[in-house]
Amino acid sequence: MFDSTTTLPCLYPMLYINSSLKFKSESTQQAYLQSIKQWYDFWREKYDQSFCEYFREHKSNPELMIKEIDSFILYLENMKVVDQKLIRLGSNPSINYNTLAHRLRVILSYLSYLLVTFSQIHGRSISPKIDRYKSVIHQKSDLVKNLSSNNHKAHKNGTNFKSLTEEMQKALHSIISPKALEPLFKSKKALFRNFLIVRLLLNYGLRTGELLLLTLNSIKTDLKTYNTYLLITDTHDRTDTRITKPQIKNVQSIRTILLDKHDAQFIRMYINNIRSQDSKSYMLFLSLQAPYAPLSKSGFKKVITVLNEKMKSKYPQFFDTNYVDSIDKISAHTLRHTWAYIMLKHSYESYLNTHNKAKAMENAIEGLRKMAGWSLNSNMPYLYASRFISENANLANIQRITKVDTL
Hints:
Blueprint: H1 11-20, H2 26-47, H3 51-58, H4 63-77, H5 97-118, E1 120-121, E2 124-125, H6 130-147, H7 153-156, H8 166-176, H9 188-204, H10 208-212, E3 219-221, E4 228-232, E5 255-258, H11 261-274, H12 297-314, H13 332-351, H14 357-372, H15 380-384, H16 386-405
Antiparallel strand pairs: 1-2, 3-4, 4-5
């Protein structure tokens, strides 16, 4: 890579190649440089400045670089055109997402290298924010996975969404309900505990780690109204004996959620009647067998797997790729997508009573962002709520056509 103005090699890419890729093949180095070049083209087009120049000036606090990662993803999806109004994540049929994911992994690796190599002086960080920036880059790898070809299998088969329709939600509830005619789990205790788990995921959009981090102290009431709240935080509980301990995703994940009265009652019923009183752990969800250890990630996954298999056997039409609203599988991620869709739709329709459509959507997305625990610069609200955004756009288009036809 050369700077077209100075005709000299770009400093940081050259150092990156010499440091991290010198033992890679020539073709691999070339592929990496092609990806880095796209990042430089993006930066030049948006800021009319060389990225090397920017980083040299701001390497002690490269906040803008981190914020622009999501914009760069959209830039690649939009055929290398900077468009501030674009809303698209994983929905461009003309894009090879396997290639896109590879390019993004290169950029994340390159930016991580810059932070690690040039933000230190004698082993000490120049800025206390550097570690947080490193964490953000690590988290972006999850978004890259969502954009990879493996995770776009559904798109190729004609499925465009990961959230459940209203009919699917009713079917899921009929299966997981403690009053189901065909109980999904053998024991009543397992049935109620797992029903509560699914209900919390679907009603509040909790991440798996957030659910498994809940403790008895996570349930709080207020003195004025006696409403019940769920505190989402990293507990650092010393009684947690799990080998793979769940973690809070980021600072924004720490939040307080108001519980529906029925859900508060269900939690109390579980604590008083289902959860073992003999356990030494303070974690909320436990194994139902002695020594009543905290529910592990593998134990949680088994619950979701049983639910998924039952749904597929009883309602195969929901997974039929001949239908545009079919789904690939039931997972904790699916339930979070579904919650995001329901939340955004309800908030948007509520705001329409006092705001125009643009402002209503803006406020609804901001509310969703806070409830879900996303950072201010995250594009995840658009990704999770893609079904509603698509339905809203399609409805507007049909209304436009209908209006033209009646003229």
